[in-house]
Design a protein that fits this description.
31-stranded mixed β-sheet; 772 residues; six-stranded mixed β-sheet; disordered C terminus; mainly beta; single chain; disordered N terminus
């Protein structure tokens, strides 16, 4: 199991990681991320904990005071319980890094929080006013669906002051994607209360400036996992200092394999039980100063880098120093050789004396694997050639390493990555080829292929083989347009080889949406009015195997959307797709609601496409529709504008029957609106007349026109139909006994060809209701 830590190339030495960043906080990141101000609230220990709030990030503005940013549409204010920041499901939020503003969260109000829970795999940058944090502390853990992070980018960034107002525990959980938490703002505890930090699985928690009470850091029992980092590497490559209890001098204790990673900075007194202290990394020597003493145990390790020739601690080699006694107590000493930007080990100078451990008081105990005068090798990850050796000595107040042999660095190699074809569509097979150019010998070993910093499945260790006049390894793959690939390859020589490993440049081939084919089928080929028929659309991608089409289908009958007289189910206008291995399908159930005679309807299905697949429309499917029987057609002259002819009207006590005929030419349609009305005359609210004629002999009253029935019908040219217009309550009242009722029948006509005007004809008939 490798014990070589540090950041160097993408090839990680160990889970003790360096968090890098950029911007005013001095953190360097391989991928740009917004480092904004931190959280802010006030809470007194023991205060009542009111409502909890969950971030949704729905607004384009990141402020906490924006209600749309919180589930339920209510923003937190005053004293609150827990503030939850979960993984968000939208495509922009889930990309790596997040493409939208949904993970940018800024406390622009005054909020008091008892606790904070965050998905630390989702890329949150939490900003704003300071927060005073209650006894609930901080819980950060990644969700299973969190995307891989690249270049050790901190997935959770807190940049504003945190003021701890009660004893509390923090729980920080990592996982396969190794989430990391960067606390870039000052963290203080005026009451010097104890803080317990639990680190579970590979995860790094970095402090820029924290002055607290006693801090206890517990790992998960695996010394390769959780790490506390002090200091960072700036964007220009220079080290930025960090501090953990440096001012107040409260102790920092590490148990259960938790590690301390010092780049440049100061801590309070350190005690280490079965953990790792790493100083420096492969491309930067480090200097970790302890304000107080250092105590290791026999299950602990100190890892230090010698980065080049010279005698300056923190520049040429790493150094752990303390203002009090350093007790080694039988721990192990591991040494690493620095690398340049190309991953080639640096050349050391014979005779250089590097002071790896320095105490203002004394150094007690010895390293179990390095007694006084012992010779140790200085290892370089990926290095073949001859490793340098040093002699270990204990002058009383420190530990020195004198370079005995400089070693022989391996010959450099070059790795070039290509893709064939270079322009792709979603799911299209592509072959990635990593060509390794040898130095002084033929390359051997393996190549690992990466996409967005994560290994491509099945291509983690592809052997290098002769390919024509070159040496290469290949990897079959496919990608999607929604997440264009960012590809690279790393060559790793076999142990004992004289060659150095090498990384390719990043390759980003274009990936377009794949074409699709949509077909539609119906459960019935002949259907009557009101009879349900099931339509099923199938979308087949041009490049199957891999991602499936998503989205929805719009079904049309004769070009009309559902609900407009052709087909009738609201689900037909956006039926969701459900994917299979190579296809996706959607269904809807609909009915035909109108029509006369038998006709053919054209059914089509249109797929709207998604981020990976292009839209497509099915060929029309013919369905035979059996409508109502047609009324006998009257003889009509050919051609001309269609018009409605109102036949003789007949009234009963409940209905009025009217024969309506369309006299349009071939292919024309007439829409006729029938409206029955009567004029009522009332005196003191009582009907005294229901006739079209005024009566001067009666007391003066009020006249009004009352609609007693209505009906609209559309007819094809040359067809006629008897229309039954059912009378409403007013009509029944008007046709009651004691009255002879002249009823006015109005017909309004619109035709498809007569664009000039509408035709209206009015007819009057008398309806007589007999006495009972």
């Amino acid at each position: 199991m490798s014990r070589f830590f540090g950041s160097g190339s993408r090839r990680e030495r160990s889970p003790v990681r360096s968090i890098s960043g950029g911007g005013s906080a001095g953190w360097r990141c391989g991928v740009a991320v917004a480092l904004v101000a931190g959280l802010g609230c006030v809470e007194q220990a023991g205060a009542a904990v009111p409502a909890d709030f969950t971030w949704s990030g729905a607004s384009s503005l990141p402020g906490w005071s924006t209600a749309a940013n919180w589930a339920g549409g209510a923003a937190p204010s005053g004293t609150v319980g827990n503030l939850a920041f979960p993984a968000l499901a939208s495509q922009g939020c889930m990309s790596s890094p997040a493409a939208g503003a949904c993970y940018e969260s800024s406390n622009d109000s005054s909020v008091t929080a008892n606790s904070i829970t965050v998905d630390d795999g989702a890329g949150y940058a939490i900003a704003g006013n300071p927060i005073q944090l209650g006894s609930g502390g901080i819980t950060a853990a990644p969700a299973a669906a969190d995307p891989p992070r690249t270049n050790r980018l901190p997935t959770l960034t807190l940049t504003a002051p945190l003021n701890l107002r009660a004893p509390q525990s923090w729980s920080i959980t990592g996982g396969p994607n190794e989430p990391q938490l960067l606390v870039a703002g000052a963290v203080t505890d005026p009451g010097a209360d104890p803080l317990t930090i639990s680190l579970d699985q590979p995860v790094t928690l970095a402090f820029a400036n924290a002055d607290l009470g006693p801090v206890t850091v517990a790992g998960d029992g695996n010394p390769q996992d959780g790490t506390i980092q002090v200091g960072s590497v700036g964007a220009d490559g220079t080290l930025s200092g960090g501090a953990l209890n440096a001012a107040g001098g409260a102790p920092v204790s590490f148990t259960r394999g938790a590690g301390l990673f010092g780049l440049k900075g100061t801590t309070g007194p350190v005690s280490m039980a079965a953990g790792i202290v790493q100083v420096g990394e492969s491309d930067q020597a480090g200097a970790l100063a302890v304000a107080g003493g250092v105590s290791l145990d026999a299950q602990s390790e100190l890892f230090a880098y010698i980065n080049g020739p010279g005698t300056t601690p923190g520049a040429d080699y790493s150094q752990l120093s303390a203002t009090a006694t350093i007790d080694l107590a039988g721990a192990r000493l591991l040494l690493g050789e620095g690398e340049n930007a190309a991953g080639v080990c640096r050349q050391l100078h014979v005779g250089d004396v590097d002071r790896l451990v320095s105490a203002s008081s004394t150094v007690t105990g010895r390293f179990a694997n390095a007694p006084d005068g012992a010779t140790l090798s200085v290892s370089c990850f990926g290095s073949t050639g001859t490793q340098p050796t040093v002699m270990i000595a204990y002058p009383g107040d420190g530990v020195t390493a004198t370079v005995l042999t400089a070693g022989t660095p391996p010959a450099p190699t070059t790795t070039t990555l290509t893709a064939s074809p270079s322009a792709l569509v979603t799911n299209q097979p592509v072959v990635l080829t990593a060509t390794v150019t040898p130095g002084s010998a033929n390359p051997d070993g393996t190549v690992e292929f990466f996409d967005h910093g994560g290994s491509i499945s099945g291509c983690e260790a592809v052997p290098v083989a002769v390919s024509g006049s070159s040496f290469a390894a290949t990897c079959p793959a496919s990608f999607v347009a929604a997440l264009p690939p960012s590809l690279s390859a790393t060559y790793r020589p076999q142990a004992g080889s004289s060659l150095a490993g090498s990384d390719s440049a990043t390759l980003a081939p274009a990936v377009a949406r794949a074409p699709t084919t949509t077909t539609v089928a119906a459960s019935l080929s002949t259907v009557g009015l009101g009879q349900p028929v099931l339509y099923t659309a199938t979308v087949t991608p041009g490049q199957p195997d891999g991602a499936n089409p998503s989205g929805s289908i719009v079904f049309l009958a004769d070009g009309q959307p559902p609900g407009q007289g052709a087909a009738g189910s609201p689900g037909c206008s956006g039926a969701p797709l459900f994917g299979a291995q190579t296809t996706a399908s959607a269904s809807c159930r609909a009915v035909f609601t109108d029509g006369i005679g038998t006709r053919s309807a054209a059914i089509t299905a249109t797929y709207g496409g998604d981020a990976n697949f292009a839209p497509s429309t099915s060929p029309p499917l013919a369905v035979s529709v059996v409508g109502r029987p047609a009324s006998p057609a009257k003889t009509t002259p050919p051609g001309g504008a269609g018009r409605a002819i109102i036949g003789r009207a007949r009234a009963t006590a409940t209905t009025a029957d009217v024969v309506v005929t369309c006299r349009g030419g071939k292919g024309q349609r007439c829409t006729v609106a029938l409206k029955l009305s009567t004029r009522e005359r009332t005196v003191a609210g009582r009907i005294v007349s229901a006739t079209a004629m005024a009566t001067a002999t009666k007391a003066r009253g009020t006249e009004r026109t009352v609609t007693v029935g209505a009906r609209t019908i559309t007819l094809a040219a040359g067809l006629g139909e008897t229309v039954h217009v059912k009378l409403n309550a007013a009509g029944l009242r008007a046709l009651s006994r004691l009255h002879r009722l002249p009823v006015t029948l109005s017909a309004s006509q619109w035709t498809s060809r007569d664009a000039g005007r509408s035709m209206v004809r009015r007819f009057t008939f008398n309806a007589l209701a007999r006495r009972a």
